[in-house]
Each structure stands twice: as structure tokens, then as C-alpha cells.
């Protein structure tokens, strides 16, 4: 049997092919988290820091998939989440804007989409600098409070300690 | 502006479009579970019942996505998993064979794939009736023990009570 190495390998033969956008949407619908933290920060203009982030958490045995997601997006940081869990984390308005663009073009299918919609609005406001005004900050706080909540995402807007205030 | 209603709606406009295969693979890579239970059953040929199942568990607020997965596969049962969690569950060799065919054609990308490979081998053995022989049952027990284990999937092969023995 002659193998032509130039043949494009199939998914079954090559697990290292680039992930597809649809796969990424499905995986993030299950495992992704859109998060807006609002932390006390007296040195900042409004006294509060708005810290949005996108992350995907996996058991460390599956860190390879976080690396492939990192490759897919072209940015993000892989770090320890807690104990034996790793996360791919994206921060920073420019990169989060790219995340928003991606999920606008490839919409989520679960209820996570409504958290994403709030998240996207926060990112767009921050791009305009709205988080640096009292009115903008208040609107962001409301958007954050509308994002999904759960035991893992305690709702603590305007927390006094640097904890996240909302996530989904 | 004239709207042509025959236009195919985009994903953003119509959340009820059929799920794509790639999305399903991504979502199952995150949220799916391949499971092989081996339960004491004195009335059966070998004294043990092999009960494989595929399931996807979600919070009840997201039962809509289980319905769409049900629509996608064309079978399965939506039922309460535990408390406020719902599951789409597929049992029965014929339907599980279809599940196996699907994930052979559209391979999983996380470590869940190795659990799936064991699961697929069990299903193929059962199609041949191998679970009705001592040798086959022993091999299935070994495959089940190689599937991913975790706190939620205690490894209890040949359990005396009807609990699942392995999952991933």
C-alpha cells in the first residue's frame, strides 16, 4: 500500500487538525464562561475596576484541548484555575472584542447566549470608555447582574474584596 | 425594506435551525457521557446485565437544548437526572449503534474520545451477542474499567446493587 503523505488527513487520523468554528461554539456552549468582575480599586477613576474575562476550564488531564483552543483563537493564557483544573483565560478589551466578534458570527445555542449578549454589551461599552463614567458603570453593573448566576458565580456586585461579581 | 420570507434565516436570526454535526461534537466533548453499567441480574443468562448508555445532562433551565439534541439524533428520552438537572438518555443497542456511527464519522477532540472508543467496542461486542458469554462479559468488564473514572463515576464493576460501573 502506498501512502501519499500529501493527502489531507481525516479527523479520525489527525487529532491535531485545526478545530472548526462550529466545534468551538458547541464546546463553549458547554464549557465556556463569560464573566464580568467589578472590583473595588480606589486608585482608578471611578473607584471600581471592571474586569471582564472569557474562560474555559478543564481538568488538567485535558489541557491539550485548551492548547488547541488557544491555537484556534490565537491568544489567551493557560493557567491553573483551582487544584487540578486548568483554564484558558482571555482578558483585555481588544482580545475580548475579537471573542465577541467570533460569537456574533457563530452564535451560541444554549441559554449561555443571553449571558454572552450582556457580556458583549459590556465589552462594547468599555471600548467607548463608558466604564469611566458613573452612568456607564451603573449600566455595566446591571448587565453583570443579569448574567447567569449559580453557586459558582455568586452575585456580588461592587464587592469590597477583589472577587468576581457575575458570570455565566 | 422588503423581506423575502423564503430566505434561509441565519443562525443569529433563527435559533431553531437544525444543530450542525460539528456543534454536537463540541457540545458532547464538553457535556456528554458514555456509560457502561454492569448490574447483578440473576434472571439473565450470565447473571449480569450490561447496560450501556449515552447521555447529556443539563440544568433544567436549558432543557431546550436537550430537545434540540433529541431532534438532531431522532431518538432518546428526556428525563430528570437529579434534582434540577435533566438528561437526554439513549439506551438500546440499535440506537447506541447509531450514536457510535455518528461519533466515528465525527470524532471527539477531547480525552473523552478514549472513553468513547471503549464504549464503541462494547456496543459492537453486544451486537455480536458477546456479552452473553463468560469471556465476552469479562472483556466488557475490562473495557468498562478503562473508561474515564471520577468522583461521579465510581468504579464498581460487577456491583451487587444496580449501580453503574463505569462511565466517561
In terms of topology, how is this protein built?
The structure is a homodimer of 168-residue chains.
Chain A (H helix, E strand, L loop, with lengths): L20 H11 E9 L7 E12 L3 H11 L3 E6 L2 E6 L2 H13 L6 H16 L6 H13 L19 E2 L1
Antiparallel strand pairs in A: 1-2, 1-5, 2-4, 3-4
Helix pairs in contact in A: 3-4, 4-5
Can you tell me about this structure?
- The structure is a homodimer of 168-residue chains.
- Chain A has 168 residues and is α+β, with helices and mostly antiparallel strands.
- The first copy, chain A, contains five helices and five strands; from the N terminus they run αββαββαααβ.
- Chain A has a five-stranded antiparallel sheet with strand order 3-4-2-1-5.
- In chain A, a hairpin with a 7-residue loop joins strand 1 and strand 2.
- In chain A, helix 3 packs across helix 4 and helix 4 packs antiparallel against helix 5.
- Chain A is globular, with a radius of gyration of 18 Å.
- In chain A, 34% of the residues are buried.
- The N terminus and C terminus of chain A are likely disordered.
- Chains A and B meet through helix 1 and helix 2 of A and helix 1 and helix 2 of B.
Average of the residue pLDDT scores of chain A:
84
Q: Beta-strand level of the residues of chain A, as a percent range?
A: 15-25%
Helix count, DSSP H or I runs of 4 or more residues of chain A: 5
Give the proportion of residues in helices of chain A. Answer: 25-40%
Number of strands of chain A: 5
Taking strands numbered 1, 2, ... along the chain, how are they ordered across the largest sheet of chain A?
Answer: 3-4-2-1-5
Summarize the largest interface: chains and residue counts.
A-B, 28 and 28 residues
Q: Which structural class do the helices and strands of chain A define?
A: alpha+beta
Low-confidence region ranges of chain A: 1-14, 150-168
Task: Note the run of SSEs of chain A as H and E.
Answer: HEEHEEHHHE
Q: Measured on Cα atoms, how large is the radius of gyration of chain A?
A: 18 Å
Q: Which oligomeric form is depicted?
A: homodimer
**Major sheet characteristics of chain A:** 5 strands, antiparallel
**Which term fits the overall shape of chain A?**
globular
Give the N-terminus to C-terminus distance of chain A in angstroms. Answer: 52 Å
Amino acid at each position: 500500500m502506498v501512502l501519499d503523505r500529501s493527502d489531507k488527513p481525516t479527523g479520525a487520523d489527525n487529532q491535531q487538525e485545526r478545530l472548526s468554528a462550529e466545534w468551538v461554539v458547541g464546546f463553549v456552549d458547554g464549557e465556556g464562561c463569560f464573566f464580568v468582575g467589578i472590583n473595588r480599586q480606589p486608585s482608578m477613576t471611578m473607584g471600581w475596576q471592571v474586569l471582564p474575562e472569557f474562560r474555559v476550564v478543564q481538568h488538567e488531564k485535558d489541557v491539550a484541548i485548551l492548547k488547541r483552543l488557544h491555537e484556534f483563537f490565537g491568544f489567551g493564557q493557560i493557567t491553573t484555575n483551582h487544584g487540578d483544573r486548568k483554564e484558558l483565560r482571555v482578558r483585555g478589551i481588544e482580545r475580548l472584542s475579537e471573542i465577541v466578534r467570533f460569537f456574533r458570527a457563530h452564535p451560541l445555542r444554549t441559554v449561555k447566549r443571553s449571558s454572552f449578549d450582556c457580556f458583549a454589551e459590556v465589552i462594547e461599552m468599555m471600548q467607548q470608555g463608558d466604564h469611566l463614567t458613573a452612568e456607564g458603570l451603573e449600566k455595566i453593573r446591571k448587565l453583570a447582574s443579569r448574567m447567569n448566576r449559580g453557586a459558582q458565580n455568586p452575585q456580588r456586585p461592587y464587592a469590597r474584596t477583589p472577587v468576581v461579581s457575575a458570570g455565566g
